[in-house]
Amino acid sequence: MYRLAHIGIAVQDIDRSKRFYCEVLGCTVTDHKKMPDLEIITLDLGGHALELLHYCPDPVQERKTGHYDHIALSVEDLDAEMNRLTTSGIVFTADFPRKTSWGQRIAFFTGPDGERIELVEDGEQTY
């Protein structure tokens, strides 16, 4: 059986992304590596590793094909978390929050590099 090792996101401004994920989403830095062609900041995201990858020179635009669509984060109270994030300047995608066909409430917003982030309210799934 496989387990998730980490999620990597190519970013254009690693300091901006670190501030966003740490200050807005509550991640903590667990590692920071600098190499001539790559800088990696590893964050703890609820017990999972999230790697912020800054390539030098910056090939972020070349990495669009085959990219992952979004990161989903579980929250206990979607409305409370949306209120907290809104006061931090986060703008949620229109038509959210909404209930999925399988019964969960969700909402989407974007991170500093346009990465889609989904909040999923904990609760009983009906699928």
- Overall domain count: 2
Order of helices and strands: EHEEEEHEEE
CATH fold-type name of the largest domain: 2,3-Dihydroxybiphenyl 1,2-Dioxygenase, domain 1
Structural class: alpha/beta
CATH fourth-tier homologous superfamily of the largest domain: 2,3-Dihydroxybiphenyl 1,2-Dioxygenase, domain 1
Mean pLDDT: 86
Binned, the helix content reads 10-25%
> What composes the largest sheet?
4 strands, mixed
- The total beta strand count reads 8
CATH class of the largest domain: Alpha Beta
What is the topology?
Layout: E1 6-10, H1 14-24, E2 28-34, E3 38-45, E4 48-55, E5 70-75, H2 78-87, E6 98-99, E7 105-110, E8 116-121
Parallel strand pairs: 1-4, 5-8
Antiparallel strand pairs: 2-3, 3-4, 6-7, 7-8
Q: What keyword list fits this structure?
A:
127 residues, alpha/beta, 2,3-Dihydroxybiphenyl 1,2-Dioxygenase, domain 1, 2 domains, four-stranded mixed β-sheet, 8 strands, 38% strand
